[in-house]
Recover the amino acids of this structure.
């Protein structure tokens, strides 16, 4: 059991390292609208999933029923398209600090929801024992974002854009609270199925969505320039085509397919209330990548916040779930 927990922890860590990349993509490509980043990422995800399906998961994918494919489509629509669209738009409208802080509440939100909802299947982490872990994570998130928010408040920005960014970030939180809980439902109900094949299946159903999105995006841009894409944008790849294609391919492979695969592996091994808290690895990775990109050294408050986040996760890993009757 402990070996499974440790392996689940390592898979969650790997997923967080992969997912942290998505927070710096909008900053690296500021001239690309959120809709372009969303469509580009998931076109890459779907195109990468095609050869993987043929080479690695053909037999496992044949075993999926129509209901399974429909569930994969719903998971991809909410957990991929809607989530990343809201996140990218929030970062571009309000900058990185505010959306990062709001998205950073996901470990607490998911843990609270899953600990009540899945108490019969997974067992419930006793609230008195779970509370210190959640408090450490919440305090860590506050410290991690204190310096960034102080800079945000010092800037003379557009209050409306910050408000819109905050609402979009809250929508992203809602999407990604729903996704891991429903995804874990399927994986725990199909413990004999391959988590890798399930990641590939989500990529395959994402491809037609991304193609439809690309066609609609191009049509809207031609009919009403400036609505979803900047008016001067050069279809289809913009002013930095190689940077756009390369970054979308990297995120499609690492953040989408490998990240989903690692998260699926963790979700089959860990209670959802625990795996939800491990999304702090995504926050830590996003911070590390952002400071590296901006060539800044993390301030002491940020380092203290990171220590609290890690302490909260370690505390949670020591809690044993208590089984509940139906």
């Amino acid at each position: 059991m402990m070996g499974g927990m440790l392996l689940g922890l390592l898979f969650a860590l790997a997923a967080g390292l992969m997912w942290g990349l998505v927070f710096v993509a909008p900053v690296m490509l500021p001239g690309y609208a959120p809709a372009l980043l969303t469509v580009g990422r998931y076109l890459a995800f779907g195109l990468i999933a095609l050869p993987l399906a043929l080479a690695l998961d053909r037999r496992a994918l044949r075993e999926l029923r129509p209901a399974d494919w429909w569930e994969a489509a719903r998971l991809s629509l909410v957990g991929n398209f809607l989530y990343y669209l809201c996140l990218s738009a929030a970062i571009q409208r309000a900058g990185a600090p505010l959306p990062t802080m709001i998205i950073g509440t996901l470990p607490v939100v998911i843990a609270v929801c899953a600990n009540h909802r899945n108490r019969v299947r997974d067992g419930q982490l006793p609230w008195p024992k779970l509370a210190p872990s959640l408090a450490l994570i919440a305090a860590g998130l506050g410290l991690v974002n204190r310096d960034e928010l102080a800079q945000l408040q010092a800037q003379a920005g557009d209050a409306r854009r910050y408000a819109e960014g905050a609402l979009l970030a809250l929508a992203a939180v809602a999407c990604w609270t729903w996704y891991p809980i429903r995804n874990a439902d399927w994986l725990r109900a199909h413990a004999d199925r391959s988590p890798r094949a399930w990641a590939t299946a989500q990529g395959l159903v994402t491809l037609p969505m991304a193609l439809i999105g690309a066609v609609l995006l191009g049509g809207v841009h031609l009919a009403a320039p400036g609505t979803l894409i900047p008016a001067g944008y050069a279809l289809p790849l913009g002013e930095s085509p190689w940077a756009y294609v390369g970054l979308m391919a990297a995120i499609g492979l690492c953040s989408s397919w490998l990240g989903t695969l690692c998260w699926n592996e963790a979700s089959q091994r860990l209670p959802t209330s625990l795996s939800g808290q491990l999304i702090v690895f995504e926050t830590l990775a996003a911070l590390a990548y952002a400071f590296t990109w901006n060539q800044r050294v993390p301030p002491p408050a940020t380092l203290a916040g990171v220590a609290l986040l890690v302490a909260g996760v370690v505390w949670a890993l020591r809690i044993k779930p208590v089984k509940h009757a139906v």
Notes: The chain has one domain: 2-317. The chain has 14 helices and no strands. The radius of gyration is 20 Å.
